[in-house]
Amino acid sequence: MTEDTYVGAIDQGTTGTRFMVFDHDGRVVANAYQKHEQIYPEPGWVEHDPEEIWENTQAVMLTALEEAGLDAEQLDAIGITNQRETTLIWDKESGRPVYNAIVWQDRRTTDRVETLQDEGKEEWVREKTGLEPDAYFSATKAEWLLDNADPIKLARMRPDDVRERAEEGELMFGTIDTWVTYKLTGAHVTDVTNASRTMLFNIHDMDWDDELLEEFDVPKAMLPEVRPSSDEDLYGTTDSEGFLGAEIPVAGALGDQQAALFGQTCFDAGDAKNTYGTGSFMLMNTGDEAVMSEHGLLTTVGFQRSGEPVQYALEGSIFITGAAIEWLEDVSLIDDAAETEELARSVDSTDGVYFVPAFTGLGAPHWDQRARGTILGMTRGTRREHVVRATLESIAFQTRDVAEAMEEDSGIDLSTLRVDGGAVKNNFLCQLQSNIVGTDIVRPMVDETTALGAAYAAGLAVGYWSNLDELRNNWQVDREFSPDDDAENVDGRYGRWKEAVDRSLDWAREE
Questions:
Q1: Angle of helix 110-118 versus helix 122-129 axis, rounded to 10
Q2: End-to-end alpha-carbon separation of the chain, Å?
Q3: Which of 73, 194, 230, 256 could form a disulfide with 246 if both were Cys (CB 3.0 to 4.6 A apart)?
Q4: Which helix (H) or strand (E) element contains residue 484?
């Protein structure tokens, strides 16, 4: 490591792609971002164009380097972090996707999951994968793609041989990390964290599960090789003749929430973080023990370094938080997310309004795929300020739902919660979160911890950072929030919140 070398991180998220470059102190030295299209073919369906994602990935990498005056050869390594569960299949020969990527938010396979539930297979799936059977995960998305992808889009294909070609290994399955790694290096690999989110991977055996593959009819020949999150053997290198013009090791990958756990330096059992993005995802490191939840949380792989045991985590997945603020923009209640703090402060309370933003069902700890968005308690006196404040409160209340479940499962009292993501720039929300959960909220100086975690994983693999203590020393507090006087009446409001959640459940039934 020299003073003029760095580590890059591709952060491929739900709404866009970012490339960031970090120095040895974990400081950002280059940053570029580009949104991609959200495709909604039918109600409840959400898709992305994988080719657009790849084009944007190349663009932001080149833009960030150019604007910072850096050469690609100054990158010692590249790490990748990604929207998890989003699933695609592509042709091995042509490299073209057979269909759009099906996004983690997509609910088209709800009926398939309910069939699993009706057959009494929930506990069977949960024991193997640590996951609650849900359309959220990749398995039913892959099954749908194999059943429904248009064979005309595939080179040299007859109309009836999509599965046949998959079984022969002529098609490739992957989550977005796999797609980006493949485009960068030609390698067909994924890391343990992303594999653990597919509902096809046994988190105890740490391998693809033959029985699950049979259940969802996903051929093993199309699956990527599973590697450590920080891999000293490297996933591959970029092509010196490619768009970067340099051979750079691609040495680490983590699903976005595990990357944030790593970037927040939650390396020890009991460390916890919450990331506020499109959804919110709270993870607690449980060490080398896979703690199985009894309160609606997921048991997942936290991270793995080369030659070391897997570190597990408990996770509470909240599907809609930041997306609820985007919805306020969509319906013209606000012009910009930054308005929400001022509008929420302009009223003393929500005036009895509760908003359950279950636009795509409810995740942890409720797991109701047919819940839908619900606003309760409105009167003629309700103004947009009340709805905006209720939206911010919904983010905090959903986090308390998860925090209470996490304390029950882990037996650990949550005294401090590290937070990151775009919404934590909102001081009102951070204070509200502290009051509603009843714990200290700690915001770091670098809030793009997802990208930072991917950079750390790749940098550790190539020796840019030598150990975890170096990373701990990089972590610095921007601001802390502790419960204040407004926390006194929280329990009553939380009780009403739970009543509002009950009203939202099982709404999207067939008439």
A1: 110
A2: 63
A3: 73
A4: none
Residue 210: helix, strand or coil by DSSP? helix
Task: Give SS3 for 53.
Answer: helix
Say if residues 431 and 484 touch (Cβ distance below 8 Å).
Answer: yes
Name residue 285's beta-bridge partners: 313
Sequence-separated (6 or more) residues with CB below 8 Å from residue 165: 154, 157, 171
Instruction: Please tell me the distance from the alpha carbon of residue 45 to that of residue 99, in angstroms, as a whole number.
Output: 13
| CA pair distance 493, 476, nearest whole angstrom | 34
- How far, in Å, are 144, 272, 356, 394, 438 from residue 486 at the CA level? 48, 24, 22, 16, 11
- Dig out the tokens for 414 from the structure: 């949550």
Q: Is 2 helix (H, G, I), strand (E, B) or coil?
A: coil
**Residues facing 8 on adjacent strands:** 21, 78
Task: Tell me the per-residue pLDDT of 79-97, one tens digit each, with 9 for 90 and over.
Answer: 999 999 999 999 998 899 9
Give ∠ CA 316-321-325 in degrees, rounded to 5: 175
- List, in sequence order, every beta strand (DSSP E) within 340-415: 354-356, 374-376
**221-267 confidence digits (pLDDT tens):** 999 999 999 999 999 999 999 999 999 999 999 999 999 999 999 99
Q: How far apart are CA 128 and CA 215, in angstroms?
A: 13
Phi, psi of 152 (to 5 degrees): -60, -30
Which residue's structure tokens are 């970029």? 238
Amino acid at 197: R
Q: What is the DSSP letter of 242?
A: S
- Give dist(CA 166, CA 50) in Å, integer: 19
